[in-house]
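Incident log, support desk, overnight shift.

02:14 A customer reports that sequence design results differ from what the structure should imply. Their input is reproduced verbatim below. On-call engineer (initials T.W.) acknowledged and began investigating.
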């Protein structure tokens, strides 16, 4: 199976990396679809320093097959029907109304319970990022978008960690932007793309909202959750260094007071139909002639941004940590870097660096060392 998120929080951190352009906007509001969307949205709100609220939607399950959505209801009396499912299963309007009537008390209960009696945050004129833990049929999200538009936002962005692409088109037509981290094919179900997909509880929703309701959420380290889990699992001592957002290895090395020879620049390359991770000092560039020889390859090129995002969906483009085993990639390290005692590298974002001993990195990454780079 392809890459899976560790849990909803990890998915939120991965998604936040793709929404950096919205950080610190004074008009920004993050809205979650409870319950599963709340842990995802909480991490996004925290990374972007935005307030968080919920938009309650209830899926209308097909009788006898409740996991299959035939539609959804949302705050404000909104009812959205999945016409394809209704047509194929010959579901009557009376059945849809009956199931909707059954779900409305729960929708109203959740609206009261989650905020503890506090009013919904004002949406009019704001940029709203609408978040769920995945997009399958799209019925719940369509209902949410319809309900949201009634409240007059200036811009609506849908953000989900994993999507079924065939469900995106109707959503795309109704919003200003849709952002995702994974679009697997075949899709199957949202839960398949998480290691831990336990149901989010009402109490978890209340706890997360109580931390950020109406507030500018506190930014936390956005270092890849998979990386931190990996290092902790192997009992590695590491340091996380937060810095201004930089977009070149040399700038990052300078801002973190790291000698260029100790800062590892991670590059993804395609060669002869597969991929590899190349690690070199900040002040070096790949010598493609030597790299082809080291790989035993005919053709070698840099991976493009789309390929990078697919291979490392938990990272902003250009910030993957130099552990190919996190992404099922072989690692080739420049001999120029291997003389260092320490190694520093991006931790999945343009604003965080991780520093560990070179010996620990070498033990875990098991790189192939070769003369594959040139000083810039």
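02:41 Re-run completed on a clean worker. Output:
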């Amino acid at each position: 199976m392809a890459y899976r998120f560790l849990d909803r929080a990890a998915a939120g951190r991965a998604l936040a990396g793709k929404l950096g352009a919205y950080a610190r906007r004074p008009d920004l509001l993050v809205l979650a679809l409870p319950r599963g969307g709340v842990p995802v949205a909480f991490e996004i709100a925290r990374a972007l320093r935005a307030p968080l609220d919920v938009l309650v939607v209830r899926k209308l399950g097909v009788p006898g097959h409740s996991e299959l959505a035939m539609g959804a209801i949302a705050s404000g009396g909104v009812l959205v029907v999945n016409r394809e499912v209704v047509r194929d299963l010959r579901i009557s309007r009376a059945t849809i109304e009956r199931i909707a009537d059954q779900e409305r008390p729960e929708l109203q209960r959740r609206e009261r319970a989650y905020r503890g009696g506090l009013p919904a945050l004002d949406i009019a004129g704001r940029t709203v990022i609408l978040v769920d833990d995945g997009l399958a049929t799209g019925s719940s999200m369509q209902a949410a978008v319809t309900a949201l538009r009634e409240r007059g936002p200036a811009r609506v962005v849908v953000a989900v960690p994993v999507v079924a692409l065939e469900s995106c088109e109707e959503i795309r037509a109704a919003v200003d932007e849709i952002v995702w981290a994974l679009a697997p094919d075949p899709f199957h179900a949202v839960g398949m793309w998480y290691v831990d997909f336990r149901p989010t509880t009402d109490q978890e929703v209340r706890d997360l909202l109580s931390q950020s309701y109406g507030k500018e959420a506190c930014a936390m380290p956005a270092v890849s959750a998979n990386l931190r889990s990996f290092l902790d699992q192997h009992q590695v001592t590491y340091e996380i260094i937060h810095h201004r957002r930089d977009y070149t290895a040399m700038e990052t090395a300078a801002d973190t007071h790291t000698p260029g020879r100790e800062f590892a620049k991670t590059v993804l390359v395609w060669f002869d139909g597969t991929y590899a991770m190349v690690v070199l000092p900040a002040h070096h560039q790949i010598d493609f002639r030597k790299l082809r020889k080291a790989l035993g390859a005919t053709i070698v090129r840099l991976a493009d941004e789309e390929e990078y995002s697919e291979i490392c969906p938990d990272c902003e483009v250009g910030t993957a940590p130099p552990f190919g085993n996190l992404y099922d990639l072989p690692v080739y390290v420049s001999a120029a870097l291997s003389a260092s005692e320490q190694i520093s590298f991006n931790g999945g974002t343009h604003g965080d660096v991780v520093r560990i001993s070179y010996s620990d990195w070498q033990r875990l990454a098991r790189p192939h060392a070769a003369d594959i780079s040139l000083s810039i």
